[in-house]
Amino acid sequence: MTGLELQKLTVGYRGRRGRTVASNLSAVAATGRLTSLIGPNGAGKSTLLRTVCGLQPPLAGSAVLADGTDVTTLKAAGLARRIAVVTTDTVDPGRLTAREVASLGRTPYLSPTGRLSADDRRVTDRALDAVRATDLADRPFHDLSDGERQRVLAARALAQEPELLVLDEPTSHLDAPSRVEFLDLLATLAREQGIAVLMSSHELELVMRLSDEVWLLRGDGTMTTGTPAALAADGSVSAAFDRGRLRFDADQLTFVIDGSGTTLG
């Protein structure tokens, strides 16, 4: 089932200094699968994610949800019920506990009183359990490690009960073990929660090992999609990332330095 489909989508910026970042993009992020967006710095990954989330308008084409709804036609409340976003922005919720932060995901569903219902609390607790953060629920959010905070923010997103979860560089502040753990968690959430998960990442080796599908956005504004194995085998990844003696080894799914025997993965 298609969670998100790009239909000849062109993204960029309007105005006197406007520019096209990427054009004529066609791709699918399927329900139940982890799709990773990769590409060189400056290729436009964040611009593309902002567009598919409805945070900025496309220049042409459309981003369409499973029922055929164009993202740009949704109002803020409807958008928040269908697409959840986790960014790299620093979150400072004061003295809120992890459970209270996660419960903020229920905001689109609250009555005018703003009070959580018993059902809202159940959804929040299920979200915390899904990201393996139940044991963190009563701890102050600001006391948590970076990895723990990221799991709680993922719980907040799940509490929105979205059909599409979008994450922009979700592992950028995590240590190596936490990066592996979090990407594995995202793949599990996609399958078990029945949602489409789309994330951007610079963690190329991990993406190639743990993703179901990959969108490779090139610096020239074009994009190739496919399974990690297919994009590695056909040379697409190497063409985008190899430089000098540094090359991507399609068999080992890691970077190597030619002539030195050094593996960087």
From TrEMBL:
<keyword id="KW-0067">ATP-binding</keyword>
<keyword id="KW-0472">Membrane</keyword>
<protein>
    <submittedName>
        <fullName>Putative ABC transporter ATP-binding protein</fullName>
    </submittedName>
</protein>
<dbReference type="InterPro" id="IPR027417">
    <property type="entry name" value="P-loop_NTPase"/>
</dbReference>
<keyword id="KW-0410">Iron transport</keyword>
<dbReference type="GO" id="GO:0006826">
    <property type="term" value="P:iron ion transport"/>
</dbReference>
<dbReference type="GO" id="GO:0005524">
    <property type="term" value="F:ATP binding"/>
</dbReference>
<dbReference type="InterPro" id="IPR003593">
    <property type="entry name" value="AAA+_ATPase"/>
</dbReference>
<dbReference type="GO" id="GO:0016887">
    <property type="term" value="F:ATP hydrolysis activity"/>
</dbReference>
<keyword id="KW-1003">Cell membrane</keyword>
<feature type="domain" description="ABC transporter">
    <location>
        <begin position="4"/>
        <end position="244"/>
    </location>
</feature>
<dbReference type="GO" id="GO:0005886">
    <property type="term" value="C:plasma membrane"/>
</dbReference>
<dbReference type="InterPro" id="IPR051535">
    <property type="entry name" value="Siderophore_ABC-ATPase"/>
</dbReference>
<keyword id="KW-0813">Transport</keyword>
<keyword id="KW-0406">Ion transport</keyword>
<dbReference type="InterPro" id="IPR003439">
    <property type="entry name" value="ABC_transporter-like_ATP-bd"/>
</dbReference>
<dbReference type="Pfam" id="PF00005">
    <property type="entry name" value="ABC_tran"/>
</dbReference>
<keyword id="KW-0547">Nucleotide-binding</keyword>
<keyword id="KW-0408">Iron</keyword>
